[in-house]
Amino acid sequence: MLVKLENPALLSKAVEIISELVTEVRIKVNEFGMSITAIDPANVAMVEFKLPKSAFSQFETDSEVLGVNLDDLKRILKRCGAGGSLVLEKRENQLEIKIYDKIRRNFSLNLIDVESEDKEMPSLDFSSRVEMLSSYFVEAVEDCAVVDDACGFIIKDGKFIIEAKSLNSARSEFSGDEVKIEAEDCKARYSVEYLQKFVKGAKLCDRTILNFANEHPLKIEFRAQHFELSFILAPRVETDD
After folding, report:
1. 38 in Cβ contact with 21 (< 8 Å)
2. Of 139, 155, 152, which Cα lies nearest the Cα of 202?
3. Cα 207 from chain centroid?
4. In the chain, what are the domain boundaries?
5. What 3 state SS string does 173-226 have?
6. What is the rounded end-to-end Cα distance, in angstroms, of the chain?
7. Using only C-alpha atoms, what is the Rg of the chain?
8. Domain 128-233, what fold?
9. How far is it, in rounded angstroms, from Cα 28 to Cα 51?
10. Of 204, 209, 173, 210, which Cα lies nearest the Cα of 190?
11. Which pLDDT does position 241 carry in this prediction?
């Protein structure tokens, strides 16, 4: 296996985000490109990252599965500067990582056995789809983090609302003039802690797609020409005393 990326930031930033959910992953490299699918230890969230073959300037591989420690990989990928390129080559039980910048640098990452079943994103039915500027979504989540550890996603009267309530409250309201809403009235609550991790994907994409339904899991999608980053988050179920 030998692949080359002219824009290594796509991979390094995605790995940084995913490493906040899981510590070890199986990276699949095949005829379609590179992908990571993983579930966090609490079984609350799931992540999927795809770099299609077209994202690479060089792509020579059979079907490979690379077990890696994400913290170790993240530290190496952070050594890539802007304008540099990245080459990944598997040699026996090592991943050789070459950074071509002003100078050529070589790293070796030990591959590990990751005990994990092959996973795929589940097929879920959603009643609501909202597409908005990523910056809007980031601000709404951070507003909610100020007042509570969970927030509600609400569709009501053709508007999309993100709000949190405790002793204090925060509320962001969007109309169809500001965001694209294809939805029916519904409401669900989600963990702000997880959402704060997911919104870091806004660094990679200027638009965010939200899919959810009444008391249903949330799917967040960041998509661009050369990558896809998606998350699924279980709803926060509130019980009445």
Report:
1. yes
2. 139
3. 13
4. 2-110, 128-233
5. EECCCCCEEEECCEEEEEEHHHHHHHHHHHHCCCEEEEEECCCCCEEEEEEECC
6. 57
7. 19
8. Proliferating Cell Nuclear Antigen (3.70.10)
9. 10
10. 210
11. 40
pLDDT at 59 (0 to 100): 97
Note the CATH architecture for domain 2-110.
Answer: Box (3.70)
Burial string for 217-226 (b: 16+ CB within 10 Å, else e) reads bbbbbbeeee
Sheet holding 45-52, edge to edge: 64-69, 24-30, 33-39, 45-52, 227-233, 218-224, 207-212, 128-133, 180-183
CA distance 92 to 85: 23
Q: What is the pLDDT of residues 97-133, one digit of tens each?
A: 999 988 899 999 999 999 876 678 888 999 999 999 9
Question: In the structure, what pLDDT confidence band is assigned to residue 143 with cuts at 50, 70 and 90?
Answer: very high
CB distance 16 to 47 below 8 Å: no
Q: Mention every residue, 6+ apart, whose C-beta is less than 8 A from residue 185.
A: 155, 156, 157
The secondary structure of residue 22, as a DSSP letter, is: -
Give the pLDDT confidence score for residue 12 in this predicted structure. Answer: 94
CA nearest neighbour of 52 among 166, 223, 231 = 223
Tokens of 112: 């590990």
